[in-house]
Give the backbone structure.
Amino acid sequence: MTAEPDGPQDRLRRFATIWSRAVYQVTSTSLTRVEFEEQLLPLAGRLSEALLARTFDAEEGRAVGAALVSAHCTDPEALSRSLDCVDAYLVLYCGEDGPQEDLRARSARLQHAMSAGYAAALRDRTLAEQEAIAWAAQSARSAVAEALHDSEARFRAVFEGAAIGIGIADLDGNILQINGALQRMFGGSEQTVRGRRVTDWTHPDDAPQVWRLYDELVRGEREHYHVEKAFYRPDGTVLWTNLTVSLLRDADGRPQYQLALMEDTTERRLLNLRLRYEATHDALTGLPNRTLFFERLEKAVSAGEGQRFGLCYLDLDGFKTINDSLGHAAGDRLLVEVADRLQSCATAPGEMVARLGGDEFVALTTGPDTEREVDELAARIMNAMIAPVSVDGRELTVRGSIGIVEGPAGERGPAEVLRSADITMYRAKSAGGNRFELADPEADLRAITRHGLTTALPAALDRSEFFIEYQPLVHLGDGSVRGAEALVRWLHPQHGVLGPDRFIPLAEHTGLIVPLGRWVLEQSVRQARDWQEQFGGHPAGGPLRINVNLSPCQLTHPGLVQDTVDILERAGLEPEALCLEVTESALIGADDDLLKPLRRLAEMGVDIALDDFGTGYSNLANLRRLPVSILKLDRSFTQGMQQFPADPVDLKIVEGIVSLAHSLNLTVTVEGVETGAQAEQLRILGCDTAQGWYYARPGPPERLHDLALVDATG
């Protein structure tokens, strides 16, 4: 009998147990370890929910970080161990069913959010402590003044017993007394500290107002001030303090002494610097991350007049293949090596390298002459990628595609600059990779337009923004209308009427081509039925035929045959009135599985036309195995017939194709007929039907109705 697997609550409890054991020893709490675990359990639950949420919410991570401070986990080691625990075990115990790469990325973002929440809570706690110190300063000032006037013994008790550093100096800055806490903070003897003057304690990081406030106090113009100030210890190390200085007056109200209270904040400051570093640097490579890069980029693009910037956006070519074949550990080692190489390429003043995430890196250069410098930076990066990277005994070739954006500061925002660099990088990748390209505003606009069209496609079908125009198919022998080809158009709200070349490739890329193609087929078949009811068939007998284009994606869709049958039956149109056009390139090398649905449709009576014939470089012998009944000859073969005399080579090619097609019992349709001479020449060569502007441009269904009536009455 096997045990039942642990449920989500059991795995969550196990994660909370590991977390409590890791942190308990460095936590200032009176709770037992088990009680502390119960305190961490709801925090573990919040992390688990944030890890698996549909939409990532960094606020959950910040709340957990703040809760650690509330649980007295204020030792820096407590945060470090908590982050290590989340990094190692959160995905393991709380995300085993999800996509591991995405969950690890989300876990890393939660760790950054925890660090930010922890730092913010620690800061709030510090402010509260500072307020308490200010209150203590006021109390100490009153106590010291009273002690000076009334009881030296009472003053000494307060002075020596205080947990914060206290020092007294005269108005000339001579230090008169210090307590033990202040002596320990400076790490020297009492004589060493008392032998100095207040004005000797300057530091390069002093804020401009520090000494102005001091001068106002000793002149009696203010009663106290509070600043953050650094001091040099006798051994040369730096002491950071929250310093509160108050003015002590004599019984007659005349300024007499100055009282300083110091809280040592050195460790807290180091923790804040560490948290800031972790929040702005990539954990894997140590490079600046997206957050810090955007801060630098924003400064670069908003610099003063005469300043320029240059940005290189790098994406590794084929990195996913390395991850998939060798594993993420090997991929991480490769990224670390690439980061080191990039770091060595950007060492000049004003240059920086950052990792945006995954295998995407950026290099930024600033200054007055970035037009030349950014090209040199890109060249250095490409040269640095030439040498193979050794990972687990394998020599891996590293290549990258770079998009470059360069320009004057003040014209574009950081988001626009990065978007242009990203678009340019993908243009370099599309051109074969292992190269860099310069940003082109017109190419950016085209890419942005493509993206906008892609995102608008799904809603466009729901909003009925598509419509169909029909171009007549004319018999070359008697000039009668034999049918029409359905051509879909998109009436876009901003761009107007778009032809299929603008959106069909996007629909194929997104998968929308299947529902769009089904809609076109349904509308076209219904229109063909309406034509039959209005004026019957063409003069030679038989129904008017409707030609509908099929994309390669539709050919592989399992519902193609059934959808076609259902649409024909609902419209009441016989299969012989439908012709499905498939491009020659889609059928090059097609196997039997791909041809099977076309064969089934052909057996039902649906005509299959091989569109753009002659452009796919297919073997003519393959025509015997394709279930086609019509060849649509590409217009490139007949353009030479628009002139007189016609190109003899084109005549021979068309004559040969027509002869071959007829010997295989195939009919030939010619596209792009634009002149009467061209139509007559094609008729002499034996072509069967034609379409083109010579007969009619694509238009509404009523135009075909008018043409058919002319044929019927003519």
Remarks:
- Confidence is low (pLDDT under 50) at residues 1-5.
- The longest strand covers residues 238-249.
- The first helix runs from residue 8 to 23.
- The chain is about 50% helix and 20% strand.
